[in-house]
């Protein structure tokens, strides 16, 4: 269980670091990505981007 926690935390750090680059190529602004303001803060739910990235990861895993 500790290994999974470490992997998830490392993945979150990696995605956070790549967020600026991913926005430049259009990810995070796809149809299906929700962005709204609540409680004085902007919230983002990149549902379409997450589906696209997981599909690409599954395809890479299948090919390798």
From TrEMBL:
InterPro entries: DUF2905
Highest taxon listed in the record's lineage: Bacteria
Keyword Membrane listed: yes
Membrane-spanning residues: 41-60
Pfam families the record matches: DUF2905 (PF11146)
Keywords: Membrane, Transmembrane, Transmembrane helix
Name of the featured protein: DUF2905 domain-containing protein
Species this chain originates from: Malikia granosa
